[in-house]
Amino acid sequence: MASAPTAPPADALTDVDSQPASLTEIAAASPSRVLHTVAARAQLRMGRAAAAGQGLSWGTLSVIALFHLGALAALFFFSWQRLLVMAVIYVLAINVGIGMCYHRLLTHRGYQVPKWLEYFMTACATLALEGGPIFWVSTHRVHHQLSDREGDPHTPREGRWWAHTGWIFFGESLHAQTEALARYSPDLRRDRVHVWLSKYHWLPITLSGLALFAAGCYLGAPQHHAPHHIAWVSGLAMVLWAVFLRVTLGLHATWLVNSATHLWGSRRFETRDDSRNSWWVALLTGGEGWHNNHHAHPVSARHGLKWYEVDPNFWGIWLLARLGLARKIQVARFDPQDPRPAGV
């Protein structure tokens, strides 16, 4: 059995080495762990054939372009203080928000936390500019249901650029269309807070940007005697680093999971898709790069199944368990004598 350096309390763990979680099954939020799937006739049309025919989403393209320009501009305003603030918020948005919450908690229900903590982690995830919880979770569940087949939102089989970033630039925006996406995330659709955060997913990052601007202005004039234009520039520089550059780096880290981990790396499990384990993507994303492990055992909250497969996002879940804030943590066991994906 592979393990992290240490483990959560024994009463918080559940083994899933025999959990029937095929690639067409999706974990839904219920005590009985009922797995939810969507009938073919009710599926949203995703993938290149469906989305590209709808034309470019100029709104999405404009926002992403603006953030990339802001990220380039940030490089002209370096300071260790801004780098530190960016790093802290990056961990909250990408590791706590996207990896631990959107992916392992909300999408696959690999563990449970109190509702107040779930909502806080979800708010952190919206800081990554990757959409609200219903959009993100539903899209990822479609990916598992149709992985590397027609209808997969971002398979490299339809182009490497498409898998990395092109897929979000085409078709209708689904970020606020909770009704259309509810078929893939009925557990979230029943939760008023998640519905609200899905509709107003832009609000936390906007408010945090204003707060960062104010903090940057204040720190730029510590004696309150500096010219106003210097304080203003300091506030703008803080936003460029802690919002624009941070978001841009985080987006590409997440997109690498969609593209690179279906192209390059090793395959421990013979899954029905092209998923691979990539150590360098794992380093960039806090463990999400162990993608073949994940596709073989999607419900497992731990993706690194060997001692050398670093998985900081699972370590965060472990820490929550030690604090009494996480329970029913699903942990896959790797048997070298029987290396089969779950449900096979």
* Number of structural domains: 1
Mean pLDDT: 85
Largest sheet, order of strands side by side?
A: 1-4
Strand content: under 5%
Main pleated sheet: 2 strands, parallel
Whole-number radius of gyration? 20 Å
Structural class: mainly alpha
Helix content: 40-55%
Element pattern in H and E? EEEHHHHHHHHHHHHHHE
Number of helices: 14
Oligomer: single chain
Distance between the termini: 19 Å
How would you sum up the global shape? globular
Number of strands: 4
Q: Stretches where pLDDT falls below 50 for ≥5 residues?
A: 1-7, 17-36
Summarize the structure.
By secondary structure, this protein is mainly alpha-helical. The chain is 50% helix and 3% strand. It contains 14 helices and four strands.
Structural description of this entry:
There is one protein chain. This protein is mainly α. It has one domain. It has 14 helices and 4 strands. The chain has a two-stranded parallel ribbon. The longest helix is centred in the C-terminal third of the chain and has 32 residues. The chain is globular, with a radius of gyration of 20 Å. The N terminus is likely disordered.
